[in-house]
Amino acid sequence: MIFGTDPPRFVGGGTTLDLDYCAILGNDAESVYREDIDEISQDRAFHFHRTDRVVTFLIHLFKYADPVAAYNNLCALIGQRGSLYLHRDGLPFCVSALDIELIPAPFVLRSVEPFFIETADYRDGAVVIFTNCPDATAASGECVLVPIEAWYEADGLPMYDANGKPIFVRAR
């Protein structure tokens, strides 16, 4: 195969996480818009901000030898930035395929939502959502998740947290 045949992998936070027993639920582009409200007339204008890649996996936790450890490993990486491979024997998502040198696109593990499969034995699973992190130059390996309303300060500049790290805003 050209793109690989092995299951997905996430490398981030100094950890390599192999997503062995999973199915890809979605690999979609999600557009993010900024809303500007005129203070006098209250007119609203929406401006295109960026397009994020959102990759969703369904992980069958019951197939792991230790499902609790597998779930805890997933939860430990929430908010961590790293490289996402759709197939671990292939290339990671890259910033641009047109460049001579491929630069891996930074992804962040947005959420891990546990559930059970409604069968006679109620087997465990999890839906895992990865989203690309727009700022590849941030010094921290962690993306700060904030509500979408907190994009910019009143002067239109990006917001920073108490440590001076840029705040990355995720679309809902």
Written account of the structure:
The chain is mainly beta and 172 residues long. The chain has one domain. It has one helix at 67-76; strands at 9-12, 15-18, 22-37, 44-59, 81-85, 107-117, 123-132, 145-146, 168-169. Strands 2-1-5-6-7-4-3 form a 7-stranded antiparallel beta sheet. The longest helix has 10 residues, at 67-76. It is globular, with a radius of gyration of 18 Å. The model is unreliable at 136-155 and 168-172 (pLDDT under 50).
What are its keywords?
172 residues, seven-stranded antiparallel beta sheet, two-stranded parallel ribbon, 41% strand, disordered C terminus
Helical content band: under 10%
Question: What is the rounded Rg?
Answer: 18 Å
Annotation, overall tally of beta strands: 9
Q: Report the principal-axis shape.
A: globular
Order of helices and strands: EEEEHEEEEE
Q: Strand share of the residues?
A: 35-45%
Summarize model confidence as the mean pLDDT.
76
Low-confidence stretches: 136-155, 168-172
Major sheet size, sense and barrel closure: 7 strands, antiparallel
Alpha-carbon distance between the termini? 34 Å
* Biggest sheet, spatial arrangement of strands: 2-1-5-6-7-4-3
Secondary-structure-derived class: mainly beta
Number of helices: 1
**What is the number of domains?**
1
